[in-house]
Structures are given as C-alpha cells and as structure tokens.
Amino acid sequence: MTRTWIAAAALSLLPVFSAWADSGQVFATKAGAIRGYDAVAYHTEERPVKGSKDFTFDYNGATWRFSSAENLELFRNDPERYAPAYGGYCAFGLSRGYAVDTDPRAFSIVDGKLYLNHNLSVRRTWQKDIPGNIAKADRNWPSVSAKL
Fold this sequence. Notes:
two-stranded antiparallel ribbon; alpha+beta; 7 helices
C-alpha cells in the first residue's frame, strides 16, 4: 500500500471532531483556536508558538490566544490574513471531504496562508500535491463546514 492511500484511509476512519470546537466553523479546544497557539507567530516566526491567556481575542466563534500584545493587534486588524484556512481543520482531511482535528506543529504557509494538518505524517502526504489538495479542500469546505 502507498503512504498516500494509508493516510487517506486513516483520515476516512476519523469522525468529524466538531464536538471539540467552540464553533463548528473553527476547530478549537478548551485552550482555544489552534489549541491555544498564536496564529500570527506562524507568519512572523515561521514556527508554532504557544499563546497566552493574557492576550486573547474572540473571532468567528472561537477564542484565539497570542504570545504578545503586538501579535494580538496584528490579528485583530486583519484576522483573515492570519487565521488558518478551513477554520483550522486539517487541510488534507478537507481535500478528502472530512473535517479532522489538527496538530499545531503540522503546518505550512502557502502563498501567505496558514494550513494545518492532522499530524506531521499527514502533512508530508499533503505536501506531495499542495495545489491539488488546496483546490479539492476549497471545493469541499462549503459542504463540510455546513455540517459542523
């Protein structure tokens, strides 16, 4: 079996994790969107950085945490720029028609947009055809998000 097939099969067995979300449109845990990680830091530091309870902002039905007041302000002024694609659900899962939770370490910035994946293995599979997977996820997101 190929790794792509294995990853796709594993994702197809996962349920939709909307029960964990504050809002169906954004994957969030009790720690907040992106499991409490700073959405801006992915763009400015090119790595996942844990956010703080001291710097929060409610957006799109979820609480977002930031590592600094500066990052909070950047997000507040342009949340669409910094918020992850597909509400932070797995980009590869969405390309296959599923809303799946994500690991903050499994990320990619593509054309200035943050994409998250279920785990690092799934990210490697997703990266084999980023344009194709984004196109599929873009097509699937409206119908999948409507069910969340």
